[in-house]
């Protein structure tokens, strides 16, 4: 187990530098004159230019200069120093305000996916090829096929504006009720995938030898399913949900933007709209790190749950 | 069709290792007890599925819409008059007019072209990259495989929407052709990994087959074995994955255009129209609902088509 964690950590370090290098190279390298960009429309004096060039090693051209500036960016990122947005607010502060909301939203989405997706998936897996099974399969295909940019505005219009079942947008301090509809919209995609995964996994395990053994021992069907089948079937589902938490943190751009939820995705949405370069860069960098770390946690969790993974 | 059957027969062979026909010669005449090939099986299965026919019809309809939009509407989508703002349906504009006074239905019809262009070209490029990478990794194995697989892992580890935002923010031009091309490139550059994995695993299976060993003993070089003997096996699963990917590329394009960093006016895109319809939904909902329906049906059609074909080809799920 220890060896597995060490190996996986090393892989993560490689992936971290690989991804951040790509992000950095795309966002900063090869842009115009960074000093002029900093000053905006105003002229830059020769002394200021010399000072900034010296400070940020902008005169070092070629590979050495590029990597110097890249490591500068990495060390700032690791120290949590993300700079300021164009409006002058510290990006760290913006994110500190936004995270709790986004996490709340993601938790609602996950809860929706678990409660409805896993339950329906188990039922569909047991009653394979029944009407219920086929109906849920078709329904999940519909959900998977409808993009969020269609689902979110339509849900907002019909459930929020027309029939007024939910508040159409949430204010600055959204309560649970205001987050419920966006949470369902956000969770519907994970719900569909979780349902399909559970169904396949349950259906496969029902045919396994150990289930036949349990049955022939005379155990009641309820116990066979709830103890023997479920335990093994839920491993891939847990992995998926873990990855999904990472996805939901970054995937909420559209949902948060449409429903005006002041979370991380909303700030990114606004940053893109108002062409706020530093804000977009800062948020994307943080989200990439969140995504990598959540993948790592899930992989380790997976290895804890399923010993076969460790001994490859 | 015969190519398709060759593929299916050898896949069949790989899956069952039973007394099915020789992979190279599936159509041997005079064998009454010849088992039906997997493609034949799949086709019989598909023919009875209403979802297959519905999605195929939708795909053809949308392709026709993209190719000849004039067949579906005689109105000009660029003919926008503010005095008609949110006006009721009249004279060919069956869904009325949007905030700018443009014909909602005509805009939705003309929007098919950009979506389908992005979807088709991204899928083609994705397919090309995936075939090359998957073939090299699967066929040569060893360090080539190790390097390429790590590359796949890294690209797979980058969240698609975030990376597309970063990449497309660097495209500052307003030329619609360049924007279209950059959206295609970005989606292809980020979206090839799943298909590459599928190709890699089918290449690894095919590489171990007897007919590959036979071809090698007959003196065939690596290039010939890869092109003539292994590629046909990797093609069918790759096409299924790419059909589904085509649908998700269309959705991704609409999402990026919705955010304002994909396609931009004057290109007509469903994503742009959904966003502008969303802002004015309280006054009139049709400019939001119509492009949304078009987009959802298109994406669904491709995903369902791919899903139906995959189900038919995957005997495990039957």
Give me some keywords for this one.
heterodimer; A: 312 residues; mainly alpha; MetI-like fold; 13 helices; 77% helix; B: 318 residues; 69% helix; 0% strand; elongated
What topology emerges from the helices and strands here?
The complex is a heterodimer of chains A (312) and B (318).
Chain A: H1 2-27, H2 34-39, H3 46-55, H4 62-78, H5 91-126, H6 131-145, H7 148-162, H8 176-206, H9 209-216, H10 221-251, H11 253-258, H12 264-273, H13 277-305
Chain B: H1 2-16, H2 38-47, H3 50-67, H4 104-140, H5 142-156, H6 160-169, H7 176-191, H8 193-207, H9 210-217, H10 222-259, H11 270-279, H12 286-313
Write up what this structure looks like:
Chain A has 312 residues and is mostly helical. Chain A has helices at residues 2-27, 34-39, 46-55, 62-78, 91-126, 131-145, 148-162, 176-206, 209-216, 221-251, 253-258, 264-273, 277-305. Chain A has a domain at 95-305: MetI-like (MetI-like fold), CATH 1.10.3720.10. Helices cover 77% and strands 0% of the residues of chain A. The radius of gyration of chain A is 24 Å and the shape is flat. Chain B is mainly α and 318 residues long. Chain B is built from 12 helices and no strands. Chain B has helices at residues 2-16, 38-47, 50-67, 104-140, 142-156, 160-169, 176-191, 193-207, 210-217, 222-259, 270-279, 286-313. At the A-B interface, helix 1, helix 6, helix 7, helix 10 and helix 11 of A face helix 5, helix 6, helix 10, helix 11 and helix 12 of B.
